[in-house]
Design goal:
Number of domains: 2
Number of strands: 2
Keywords: Membrane, Transmembrane, Transmembrane helix
Protein name: DUF3278 domain-containing protein
Distance between the termini: 38 Å
Radius of gyration: 22 Å
Oligomer: single chain
């Protein structure tokens, strides 16, 4: 069924061998990745435009958002379902080294998240006060902890 769908979608009428079929599948995956990245860029640009101009939220943006979230959800589900995100670690020392690297990466993500939120408030012209900064720092810490917990599930002995 999948083979016929590829043939119909690509307009290929003849039977292909496995190498040609895998090449077609790779090209379709690259195309999907390009469309996905393009939709993310489009979403970001439109959201910035809407926020700056205080324009109403258009319906086409909702459709692109639903499409992008659907693709993200499907890819995430497939990765977790087929256990493609798990990493086998040969010994305990390697496991501890990977977890320390994950902790560093999570700290960087928390800092980037907090600084990004503060920068967005500065860009929007809101006054900076201690309450806002502390709220963004707490949000960054919570984000970093969540990223560490999610990343830690991947590693197993």
């Amino acid at each position: 069924m999948r083979k016929r769908m590829y043939q119909w979608f690509l307009g290929v009428s003849e039977e292909r061998d496995e190498r040609q079929l895998s090449e077609l599948q790779r090209m379709m995956a690259d195309c999907l990745l390009g469309v996905y990245i393009g939709s993310l860029v489009y979403l970001a640009a439109r959201c910035i435009y809407i926020v700056i101009n205080r324009a109403p939220f258009p319906l086409d943006l909702v459709a692109v958002l639903v499409l992008t979230l659907g693709i993200s959800g499907y890819m995430g589900f497939q990765i977790i379902y087929h256990r493609l995100d798990e990493v086998d670690v040969p010994d305990d020392n390697e496991l501890q080294r990977k977890r320390r690297r994950l902790l560093r990466r999570s700290c960087y993500q928390a800092i980037f998240f907090a600084v990004g939120l503060i920068g967005l408030n500065i860009f929007m012209g809101e006054p900076i006060n201690g309450h806002m900064i502390s709220g963004h720092v707490i949000g960054g810490v919570v984000f970093g902890i969540l990223m560490y917990i999610i990343g830690r599930w991947r590693y197993r002995l």
